[in-house]
Specification:
The structure holds 2 protein chains of 2 kinds. Helix content of chain A is 0%, strand content 52%. By secondary structure, chain A is mainly β. In chain A, the strands form 3 sheets. In chain A, strands 2, 5, 6, 10, 11 and 12 form a 6-stranded mixed β-sheet that branches. In chain A, a hairpin with a 4-residue loop joins strand 8 and strand 9. Chain A is globular and about 40 Å long. Chain B is an all-beta fold. Chain B is 0% helix and 51% strand. In chain B, strands 2, 4, 5, 6, 9, 10 and 11 form a 7-stranded mixed β-sheet that branches. A 4-stranded antiparallel β-sheet of chain B has the order 1-3-8-7, with no helix packed on it. In chain B, a hairpin with a 7-residue loop joins strand 9 and strand 10. Classes of the chains: A mainly beta, B mainly beta.
């Protein structure tokens, strides 16, 4: 069965520092891959997605993610974190649009 | 442009009571979904619909029923609420096939 793992439950970074959030998936073929962000009390918003092609994907708010087939990973990165990036981040995988599976989430705290 | 709207936003039930959550979207999306979000577990798909008049089970459908009588609305029902159904419920919609889900702001349900 397909699954997605986010190893880090909570990460704290200083404002201006770089960020990498990890995501690993388990699936026979390369699924569609996504990162969503959830601000407190809000629904989820799509940051970026990977379907095929270039393995480095650019998203909104200065985020990017790199798909590595050999590692079954789709890590999210940002070169310089802003205080407004504090939120919960979810990686998701889907073989199609009917069955998107989400990771447990990584909560990001940004120190001033 | 309201996007995806969920009502009610908060509800407290006693064990055994019934209730319905309403999701409305104004984007003319074909696909609609109900997820539940629990701490440390991410989002889990309850039921989904790929068009008016259709519904299908997701990962955790037991104890819930759904209906999609109109394209813009997707109802989630609990016939006999249990404490295990205490959760935050999210509705989402999409065109289908693009992978981007548009989420509502969530409905927090507490079952005593």
């Amino acid at each position: 069965a397909q699954s997605v793992t986010q190893p880090d439950i909570h990460i704290t970074v200083s404002e201006g520092a770089s960020l990498e959030l990890r995501c690993n998936y388990s699936y026979g073929a390369t699924p569609y891959l996504f990162w969503y962000v959830q601000s407190p009390g809000q629904g989820l918003q799509l940051l970026l997605k990977y379907f095929s092609g270039d393995t480095l994907v650019q998203g909104i708010k200065g985020f990017e993610a790199e798909f590595k087939r050999s590692q079954s990973s789709f890590n999210l990165r940002k070169p310089s974190v802003h205080w407004s990036d504090a939120a919960e981040y979810f990686c998701a995988v889907a073989p199609n649009n009917n069955d998107m599976r989400f990771g447990a989430g990584t909560r990001l705290t940004v120190k001033p | 442009n309201a996007g995806v709207t969920q009502t009610p936003k908060f509800r407290v039930l006693k064990t055994g009571q019934s209730m319905t959550l309403l999701c409305a979207q104004d984007m003319n999306h074909e696909y609609m979904y109900w997820y539940r979000q629990d701490p440390g577990m991410g989002l889990r798909l309850i039921h989904y619909s790929v068009g008016e008049g259709t519904t299908a089970k997701g990962e955790v459908p037991d104890g819930y029923n759904v209906s999609r009588l109109k394209k813009q609305n997707f109802l989630l029902g609990l016939e006999s609420a249990a404490p295990s159904q205490t959760s935050v419920y999210f509705c989402a919609s999409s065109w289908g096939g693009t992978g981007e889900l548009f989420f509502g702001e969530g409905s927090r349900l507490t079952v005593l």
